[in-house]
Specification:
Length: about 250
């Protein structure tokens, strides 16, 4: 498992990345595998595709173990004790125990699981693999803002375009997951086209259209490529003040 921290002026975010195979084969995860609840096991039984079932069970074990590790030693919570609930739009949340202002978010590919955790604000994470079979040209026209399309068109090679596509895509997904609304907002209204890239990294800038009642300045974003061929985008936000819920 890979674990690293993302630091910003609004707070800190811990990222945890593991392969599905490691969860099922490594003895270090035995306690977490045994902590999967009866309800989670019943849900797994309803998943027909064996690879999807294994990924679901690995995700549940992984989330329980990483949450317990994150809150220790201030709180002692075993992987078995966590209870989960869903927000209004299906976002997973901790139901019990109440551990400060704990926020977490998960994302996965076919073979990797990502979990972001923070007590400083709301978390959204997304991981994608560059080998995903998608029609980039179609999606760019459909869901990317004009400034994002301009940056993509300026790239010389298909490989560069694909890399930048997943940069923008994971940032959009992380933002939406941080909001907890799912893909209910028009993606073209979420614009990262003003982001500047250099050898030192990216200066990520979010611009929102007036139809999204949110303050971009409360968000901090980051980009990571911890495994070759994979792109991670993260979002961390301080709570909104005197604003209307989306």
């Amino acid at each position: 498992m890979n674990t690293w921290w993302v630091h910003s002026d609004v707070g800190h975010l811990q990222l945890n990345l593991v392969s599905v195979l490691e969860i099922h084969s490594d003895s270090r995860w035995a306690e977490a595998r045994q902590a999967i609840s009866a309800a989670e096991l019943r849900r797994a039984e309803g998943i027909r595709l064996e690879s999807a079932k294994k990924r679901y069970l690995a995700t549940r074990a992984f989330v329980r173990a990483t949450l317990s590790s994150f809150v220790h030693p201030e709180w002692v919570v075993s992987p078995r004790e966590w209870e989960f609930q869903t927000g209004p739009h299906g976002r997973p949340e901790v139901g019990f125990p109440v551990v400060g202002s704990l926020s977490f978010n998960i994302s996965h590919t076919e073979d990797h699981i990502l979990c972001g955790i923070s007590t400083d604000g709301t978390v959204g994470v997304d991981i994608e693999t560059w080998t995903a079979r998608i029609n980039i040209e179609h999606l760019v026209r459909k869901v990317f803002a004009s400034a994002e399309q301009t940056q993509l068109c300026a790239k010389d090679s298909p490989e560069q375009k694909k890399e930048l596509f997943f940069v923008f895509w994971t940032l959009k997904e992380a933002y939406l997951k941080g909001l907890g609304t799912g893909i209910l907002l028009p993606l073209q209204s979420i614009d990262f086209g003003d982001t500047e890239f250099s050898r030192r990294g990216a200066s990520i800038r979010l611009r929102l259209q007036p139809n999204i009642p949110d303050d971009p300045s409360r968000w901090r974003f980051s980009l990571h490529q911890p495994v070759p061929g994979y792109q991670i985008g993260t979002a961390l936000a301080v709570p909104k003040l005197n604003s209307t819920n989306l």
